[in-house]
Write a structure and sequence with these properties.
Blueprint lengths: L8 H32 L5 H31 L13 H29 L2 H27 L2 H7 L1 H32 E3 L1 H31 L5 H22 L1 H10 L3 E2 H8 L3 H5 L12
Antiparallel strand pairs: 1-2
């Protein structure tokens, strides 16, 4: 049973300040990535541009909410810091809700790659269902934090927060695993261009690993250390990791495209097709057409 007397005020305020500072720093990186995107890809589809702008605006709101919560905890009620453990600051609760919304949007976008790249809509649908289930759970947690005390939430509803976090981690792992397996198969079939596929595989694995590791760590801290807010500090950082992962993947397309032009990925099936028409290799100066696969 968690009670207010179990909390260390100084330690917890320090943890929240560190988490807020790291989150703000990562927001700067997110802003830089968003600016780079609009500078490099002015001809992108309007849908993608709106997606990037929407996520950046949500990140701005999330950062503002975290800083408002920190201001309330350390300045507004500086004379009674123990109240932080009675009721969640409004800013912190809003940031929790925005974190779930940002993560869901990014996960839906990444899961859509399973449909477009692998041609397996059923797997993408599973990821979408799990992502929206996580969003519903996050929304209900936020409602509870607005209405009940933290100790009551930890004792009665902590399992709901745990469920949302593990669902989120499962979606990250499932998406990264599916795309990685598909890329590994393509690499085995490729004759040339394997270094490009290696880069894409590494990026895919890192994206899923970073976000899922942070989510699992947050859940572990919530269970192992219920008397402090270390888990909340990880929660401040989590949406930034999702946004940076998405923006970085969008911005990497230009570099991958140039690399594919310099060293195209040629598959055995393409060589077999060309072998049926040897005259194209012997008498024409037209370059061999190759298949370039990037994500």
């Amino acid at each position: 049973m968690v009670t207010i007397s179990d909390y260390d005020i100084i330690f917890n305020l320090g943890v929240l300040e560190i988490g807020a500072m790291i989150s703000t720093l990562l927001f700067g990186i997110t802003t830089s990535q968003a600016y780079t995107y609009y500078e490099r890809y002015p001809a992108d589809h309007l849908r993608i541009k709106i997606l990037v702008l929407s996520i950046w605006l949500l990140e701005l709101c999330h950062t503002t909410a975290v800083l408002q919560g920190l201001f309330f905890a350390t300045i507004t009620q500086y004379h009674r810091p123990e109240l932080l453990f009675v009721k969640s600051a409004t800013g912190f609760t809003i940031s929790f809700l925005l974190s779930g919304l940002i993560a869901t949007i990014v996960q839906v976008k990444f899961a859509d790659r399973i449909r477009t790249v692998m041609g397996k809509p059923w797997l993408a649908i599973v990821c979408w269902i799990l992502s929206f289930a996580r969003l519903l759970g996050t929304t209900w947690v936020a409602v509870l934090l607005f209405t009940i005390e933290l100790t009551e939430f930890a004792n009665r509803w902590g399992h709901l927060a745990m469920a949302t976090w593990f669902i989120a981690a499962s979606v990250d792992v499932l998406t990264a695993a599916a795309l990685t397996i598909n890329l590994v198969r393509k690499r085995q079939e490729a004759i040339l261009g394997k270094p490009i596929l290696d880069k894409i595989i590494a990026t895919t694995v890192q994206t899923g690993l970073v976000t899922s590791t942070n989510t699992v760590t947050m859940a572990i801290c919530f269970v192992a250390m219920p008397h402090n807010f270390v888990w909340a500090a990880f929660g401040f950082v989590l949406p930034k990791l999702f946004s940076i992962s998405l923006f970085a993947s969008l911005n990497a397309r230009q570099k991958l495209r140039r690399a594919s032009e310099d060293a195209p990925t040629i598959y055995l099936e393409n060589l077999n097709e060309l072998a049926k028409v040897p005259s194209k290799l012997e008498f024409t100066s037209t370059p061999i057409t190759s298949s370039v696969h990037t994500t």
